[in-house]
Amino acid sequence: EKFYPYMPVKNVTADYPPTLLIHGTADTDVPHEQSVLMQREFKKHGVSHRLVSIKGGEHGLGGGDPRAIDDAYKAALAFVQKHTG
Questions:
Q1: Backbone phi, then psi, for 30, in 5-degree steps?
Q2: Burial 50-84 (b: 16+ CB within 10 A, else e)
Q3: Considering the entire predicted model, what is its pTM?
C-alpha cells in the first residue's frame, strides 16, 4: 500500500485526463498487461481512453510491424486532436 501513490493503476478517478496508451505486446520492461489493467480502470471510471497494442512490439515499439506503428502514430494524432479541440 505504501507504493500506491506511485502506481498509476491505483490512482485512476473520473477526473483522470483522457489517456492514450500505445504498448508493444512483447515489451519486457513494462508488461503489456499493465496497459490492459489501466484500460480496465479507465472503463470503470468512465475515463476517455484508447489502448493501441502493437503485436510483437518491444519497449519503444521496436520489433513491431512498421505499418502498425505508423497507424499508432496516426491514432495518437487523432486522439490529441479530439481532446484538444
A1: -130, 110
A2: bbbbbeebeeebebbeeebbeebeeeeeebeeeee
A3: 0.88
Helices and strands counted in the chain (H then E): 2, 2
Q: Give the separation between CA 68 and CA 53, rounded to whole angstroms.
A: 9
Q: Which residues of 8-27 are buried (b: 16+ CB within 10 A; e: fewer)?
A: eeeebeeebeebbbbbbbbb
Amino acid found at 22: I
Contact 46, 16 (CB under 8 A): no
Pairing of strands 49-54, 19-24: parallel
Q: Report pLDDT digits (tens) over 6-59.
A: 999 999 999 999 999 999 999 999 999 999 999 999 999 999 999 999 999 999
